[in-house]
Design goal:
Length: 375
């Protein structure tokens, strides 16, 4: 399902093509997060035409709770339910269960948890999360894992890795025993864990690589550890994960994080940051980071971003967007979210071109400084 197309001579960056039943995806790629079958505040039309997203995410935990697998099954899968014809990826829900903290209990069998919606009791196992993802019908599905908190003791991280690996064996068995429901092949990705302990990460990467599935993911990062720790762990893991399969760094991150990870051989990303931060008035631009709430933008009638990653970036001014955000207008959140997502997608497009032309490393170094500046 994956082919490396070009490699950078100075780094581990590469471009590739990820082939799925619902379309081909150029990598490196950023995937907008559509947790409950919706990228918050964004029409599917805007995802296609302005942001130009080639793949988006759904979340097993949230979709399981609401609307529930019964409705999704009746609709014919998530693609039909949300009228999205391009690829989908679903997280297993492991991270969301992890984030529930006091409302969940982990056992060898799986995760007992209470719904954040109404407090009702539920149970996730490696098997039933595969079953749920069969109903959802995503092109790429994830094995259930445990995301260890940061910081954590070595003993806890080691136990977490063992649990994740045992769950993986059971998830693979269930995946191989079942068939897709909607006529399209699904691809199962396992997840490397191990906190920031090199030996645990190596052990986990070796287990995940030996599973010989069609892609691999790295989880448990961007959970509070310093960025340099994250980059170091990526390097440790990517020395082991096979080069001929896509590498997915889960839940990361800032534009600078993405470029640093691309340099280290990562192919796929997702993060709520562009939409969540956009709703709070933070814009990522070609000139640096803008807090649109600041008074300095009150009479700035220049476009949001002169390089125009999206139509809205050139159509609306900073002053107008500030007015909308300060006033609590929904349109302000929509504009900021569309702009930020388009910025992320365009950044990955530019990275692909620089890798292809052999200019990636020098461009990345200057780009990180520019786009990380606070305006």
């Amino acid at each position: 399902m994956f082919k490396v197309l070009s490699r950078d001579n100075e780094t581990s960056a590469r471009t590739g093509l990820l082939v799925t039943p619902h379309g081909d995806i150029a990598t490196p790629v950023f995937m907008p997060v559509g947790t409950a079958g919706s990228v918050k505040g964004i029409l599917q039309r805007d995802l296609l035409e302005d942001i130009r997203a080639g793949i988006i995410l759904g979340n097993t935990y949230h979709l399981f709770l609401r609307p529930g697998t019964g409705i999704i099954r009746e609709a014919g899968g998530l693609h039909r339910f949300m009228n999205w014809g391009l690829p989908l990826l679903t997280d297993s829900g492991g991270y969301q269960v992890f984030s529930l903290a006091g409302n969940r209990k982990l056992t060898d069998e799986g995760a007992h948890f209470r719904s954040h919606i109404d407090g009702s009791k539920h149970f996730f196992s490696p098997e039933n999360t595969i079953d749920v993802q069969r109903v959802i019908g995503a092109d790429i599905v994830m094995a259930l894992d445990e995301c260890a908190p940061y910081p954590c003791e070595y003993r806890y991280a080691a136990k977490s890795v063992k649990l994740t690996h045992n769950w993986l064996d059971r998830a693979i068995k269930r995946f191989n025993e079942t068939e897709p429901l909607w006529g399209n092949k699904q691809h199962l990705f396992p997840i490397v864990q191990g906190s920031t302990f090199d030996d645990l990460r190596r052990e986990s990467a070796e287990k995940i690589a030996s599973a010989d599935l069609e892609g691999n993911a790295i989880g448990g990062l961007s959970v509070g550890e310093p960025a340099e720790e994250m980059y170091r762990i990526i390097e440790v893991v990517n020395r082991i994960l096979p080069e001929d399969k896509p590498r997915y760094l889960m839940g990361v991150g800032t534009p600078a994080n993405l470029l640093e990870a691309v340099e280290r051989g990562i192919d796929m990303f997702d993060c709520v940051m562009p939409t969540r931060n956009g709703r709070n008035g933070m814009l990522f631009t070609s000139e640096g980071i803008i807090n649109i709430r600041n008074k300095k933008w009150t009479t700035d009638f220049s476009p949001l971003d002169p390089e125009g990653p999206s139509t809205v970036s050139l159509y609306y001014t900073k002053a107008y967007l500030r007015h909308l955000v300060i006033s609590g207008e929904i349109l302000g959140s929509q504009i900021a979210s569309i702009h930020n997502l388009a910025f992320y997608l365009r950044l990955m497009e530019r990275a692909r071109k620089k890798i292809e032309t052999g200019d990636f490393k020098k461009w990345k170094e200057s780009e990180v400084k520019k786009i990380s500046a606070r305006l």
